[in-house]
Write a structure and sequence with these properties.
143 residues, alpha+beta, four-stranded antiparallel sheet
Amino acid sequence: MRLQHILIPAALCSLVAASAYSEETDHYRLEKSANGYVRMDTRTGAMSICEERTGQLVCKMAADERAAYQDEIDRLDNSVKALDARVAKLENSLSARLESQLPSQEDFNKTMGYMQQFFRTFKDIVKDMDKEDGDGGKLNQKT
């Protein structure tokens, strides 16, 4: 009985491993050509030209795929350049706009002087109101 519990899972694992190996070996298909081999990716249909060098198979993309690949690289490169230019333009216009809207140091100091004068005057008015009430600055207790 225990032997069944061991053999059945082992058989299932070996079947799964064999099918995974089979899928991996079926991923590419090699065909002999006059100059070497042609490798086809059975999943995508991509073709590569392969040749033997020092006992190893070296594969390169087919010419039409290489041209399409290079076209895509060029398109993406142009897109990146356009985006870089756009970002630089936006950053420059934003910083220039912000700098033009900020007050000068002289204007800032002048405004701060006005604010200080306003608050001093307001504080004096509050003190005068407290003296008129005769509270001497104490708050009314309502509880």
